[in-house]
Backbone:
């Protein structure tokens, strides 16, 4: 699979930007906030919630955080004015995590406080493994400042994830809320599973551990084995749509959330699976990115994990594998 991805990547530099824009329209709402609001409005009949992400490039100075701070403020205001059920997702490095921890904590604290005024939840996306520790530290510091509307992401592929789940459960108790995904970054075999089956098993285990620790769990995968295993884990524990969470202790009930878990999907990926889950009563959430730097962002993601190029190509060549 990665070989195909690499071949596609080799042609990327000579592929017209307009063509890449055409392809990416399925996965990125557009370059402006208005595009994100429009796409969420267009999807209003799909019975789903959203988490909105502002795309951007790496920043190298604290000055570079300013456009993100401004845009997330605009985004939070726009969501609170609308009747759209949306949270926000953000990358802590866009707020200076790599440059000045205290500055990043202060700016994130302001964003999380503002979001809380409108019952908007803030998810700290997880970047590559060099940021796992500092992102967890930021989340714990935000929580100890009294912010309850903030959660993090853990990546099934990392060996450390099981310990991190215990750490979060201990630090946040009934307010612990994690998104669990495979992890998009290709990590070394010293610290992560690298084979498909191992990653699937580890991600499935992480979902089970999080459920057993009484956490609110965002199951973020389009992969059938993970979704099916999660459905089975939920059923075994009696956690079902429209029923109160039987776990003791159960996660705290929060605005805009389901009863203890939700399924999360990327915009444009396996919409048919998402709609099926929603029609069976499960809360679903679409991760919806927008931003002026969609091109730089998409190219960087593809370089980091050329396997994605193959998934995108597969959606075009074999549309039945990934229905919108
Ligand atoms: P895969 O086996 O990769 O995908 C299953 C099938 O879904 C594929 O065969 C294909 O048909 C389709 N598919 C999946 N992805 C794509 C795609 N991009 N384009 C086209 N088709 C696709 N990773 C992080 O490291 N940090 C995060 O904070 C993070 N947040 C996420 C938030 C959400 C809501 C989701 C859904 C994923 C997030 N990820 C994050 C990415 C995640 O870690 C995986 O890399 C990604 O979801 C692909 O893994 P999969 O479990 O869907 O399985």
Residues:
């Amino acid at each position: 699979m990665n070989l195909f991805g690499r071949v596609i990547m080799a042609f990327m530099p000579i592929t017209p930007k307009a063509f890449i824009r055409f392809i990416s329209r399925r996965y990125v709402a557009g370059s402006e906030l208005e595009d994100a609001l429009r796409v969420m409005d267009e999807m209003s009949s799909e019975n789903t919630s959203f988490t909105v992400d502002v795309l951007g490039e790496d920043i190298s100075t604290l000055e570079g955080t300013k456009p993100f701070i401004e845009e997330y403020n605009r985004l939070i205001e726009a969501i609170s004015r609308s009747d759209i059920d949306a949270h926000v997702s953000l990358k802590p490095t866009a707020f200076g995590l790599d440059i000045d921890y205290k500055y990043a904590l202060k700016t994130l604290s302001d964003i999380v406080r503002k979001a809380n005024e409108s019952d908007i939840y803030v998810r700290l996306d997880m970047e590559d493994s060099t940021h796992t520790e500092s992102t967890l530290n930021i989340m714990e510091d935000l929580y100890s400042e009294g912010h309850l509307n903030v959660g993090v992401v853990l990546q099934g592929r990392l060996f450390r994830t099981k310990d991190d789940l215990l750490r979060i459960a201990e630090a946040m108790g009934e307010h612990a809320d994690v998104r669990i995904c495979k992890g998009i970054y290709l990590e070394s075999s010293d610290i992560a599973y690298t084979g498909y089956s191992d990653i699937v098993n580890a991600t499935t285990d992480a979902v089970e551990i999080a459920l057993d620790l009484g956490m609110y769990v965002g199951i973020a995968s389009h992969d059938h084995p993970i979704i099916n295993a999660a459905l089975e884990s939920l059923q075994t524990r009696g956690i079902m749509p429209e029923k109160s969470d039987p776990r003791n202790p159960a996660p705290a009930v929060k605005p805009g959330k389901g009863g203890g878990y939700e399924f999360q999907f990327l915009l444009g990926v396996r919409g048919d699976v998402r709609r099926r889950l929603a029609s069976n009563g499960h809360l679903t959430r679409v991760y919806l990115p927008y931003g002026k730097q969609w091109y730089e962002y998409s190219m960087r993601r593809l370089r980091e994990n050329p396997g994605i190029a193959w998934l995108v190509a597969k959606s075009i060549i074999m549309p039945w594998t990934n229905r919108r």
Q: What stands out?
A: The chain has a mean pLDDT of 92. The beta strands are 49-54, 86-90, 122-124, 150-155, 177-181, 216-220, 261-266, 284-290. The first strand starts at residue 49 and ends at 54.
